[in-house]
Structures are given as structure tokens and as C-alpha cells.
Amino acid sequence: RLRALIFDVDGTLADTERDAHRVAFNRAFSEFGLPFAWDVPTYGKYLKITGGKERLRGFLQDHPQYPQLTDSEIREIHRRKTALYGEIIAEGIAPLRPGVKRLLESARAAGMRLAIATTTTPDNVAALLQSNLGEGGWNRFDYIGAGDIVPQKKPAPDIYQHVLQRLDLMAADCLALEDSENGLRSALDAGLPVLITQTEYTQGQDFTGALRVLDQLGEPEHPGRILQGGETG
Ligand code: XBP
Ligand code: MG
Questions:
Q1: Among 102, 137, 153, 226, whose Cα sits 20 to 30 Å from the Cα of 53?
Q2: Which tens digit of pLDDT belongs to each residue from 26-43?
Q3: What's the superkingdom here (predicted)?
């Protein structure tokens, strides 16, 4: 019997990467006088590195012509990026993806527990939930595991293992909801069944092992379409 749903955040609860995270990074880079910005395809490429600080580090390693930042400089720029992200989200530009709110409510009504397992910073999760679900948004979840709480980010299984431990549930009794191959890998390696709702950025990734691959969870009037080739389990 299904006892809990564990949600990824970016790409799964809401489409936050292109117009919120990416824009916040670019504003922070500009404020710090850095001589680069991430266009949409470049950001897509570096999204494969999970975690904003890790992403910036990976980008700099590939671009030795740019100033090489220390870890503490990266942390400082990333702190500013987090604040800018919160301001962008507060403008209401990242609605929940179709069907997400309905699923949260119907799962809760069916007695399931709800949790989050994400790579992003806790402040960002709070901003997104507050903007879409109001003051009580955070408390709709039994546990929120986010960011640097585990040493190894997705695709490592650590964050899902951590959330399972906090929920005191077995992996097989839960369902993970993800949008990316990194997230799928993380959840599968923690033993969870995984439902994928893909995004513009994650379309075409290898979702082998997912229970289903949908393009959205769908509202009753717009049912989610099951994409071909995604069913492997
Ligand atoms: C997505 C990520 C995050 C965000 C940026 O995480 O990899 O790093 O892109 O957030 P998920 P931070 O899909 O697991 O929620 O800058 O706060 O890391
Ligand atoms: Mg994601």
C-alpha cells in the first residue's frame, strides 16, 4: 500500500529553472561584476550538475578564461542568488505544475504522508511553497529534505535515503515524483518507484527504470499524456 509521496521541487512542483533560478544566477553574476551570463541552452547544459554552487564551480572549471572563484566567493554569490530567487518567486511567476495541487490534496485526503527531497536550498523551497500555497505551504509536508543537509546531491541516493529515514518508511511503500534523470537515478538508487513528469529541459533524457513518464500530472479536463517509450517497469 502506498504510504507517502516524495516530491522533487525544481521541474516537478513548478517549472523554476529557466525563468527563476537562471535569471537569479545572472543577476547575481552581474552584481558581482562577473564577465559571463547563462543563456537558456548553456543553463540547460549545466543543469546536469545539481546544486547551484556545484553548477557554478563546474562552469568555471570548463571556462579557465573567467576569474576562478574561491569556495567562499562562490558561497557568497550563491547566497545573493538565493535572495534574488526569492524576490523573483514572490512575483508569482512560477505556478505549481498542472495537477500538483490536486495530487497533494487527494493524497492527503487518502491518508498518505507528503515529503520533499530536493537539491535546492531550503529558503527556495519556502519561497516557492509560500508563493503558491500561502503561509501554510511548508506545513503541508511531513518532512522537507533540501540542499546541503546531505553531503552528496542527486544523482546520489542520499537525499531520498535521508527523507525515508525521517519518515520512518520503507522505500517500496513510497512513490517519488521527479522530472529529471538525475532525480530518477537518486530515487531509484534509494529503492523507490518513480513517476516522471518531464520538462522542457529534461525531455529526452534517459528515464529507464521509471514507472511512467508523463508530460504533466494533468487536470481532469487536461489529462496527462503518457509519452511513448517511457514505460519500462
Ligand atoms: C534542482 C537543482 C538546484 C537548482 C538551483 O534541484 O539542481 O540546484 O537548480 O538551486 P531539484 P540552488 O530538481 O532536486 O529540486 O541554487 O539552491 O542549488
Ligand atoms: Mg528536478
A1: 137
A2: 999 999 999 999 999 999
A3: Bacteria
Say if residue 10 is in the same domain as residue 116.
yes
What are the residues facing 218 on neighbouring strands?
223
Residue ending a domain, choose from 57, 90, 123: 90
Q: Is the pLDDT of residue 232 over 50?
A: no
Beta-strand runs (E) in 147-200? 174-178, 194-197
- Domain limit, last residue, from 58, 90, 122: 90
Pocket test for ligand 1, best of 18, 25, 55 (most atoms within 8 A of CB): 55
**Residue 13 Cα, ligand 2 centroid: separation in angstroms?**
8
Distance CA 73, CA 170 (A): 40
Q: Is the pTM of this model over 0.90?
A: yes
Name the catalytic one among 10, 15, 158, 179. 10
Checking ipTM against 0.85, whether it exceeds it is yes
Q: What ligand has the least distance to the C-alpha of 116?
A: 1
Same domain, yes or no, for 175 and 204? yes
Residue ranges lining ligand 1, Cβ < 6 Å: 8-11, 17, 21, 50-52, 118-121, 124, 154, 183
* CATH number of the structural domain spanning residue 182: 3.40.50.1000
User: What are the start-end ranges of the H helices in the chain?
Assistant: 22-31, 40-46, 52-62, 71-90, 100-109, 122-133, 158-167, 181-189
Task: Note the pLDDT tens digit of each residue in 89-141.
Answer: 999 999 999 999 999 999 999 999 999 999 999 999 999 999 999 999 999 99
Q: Are residues 99 and 86 in the same domain?
A: no
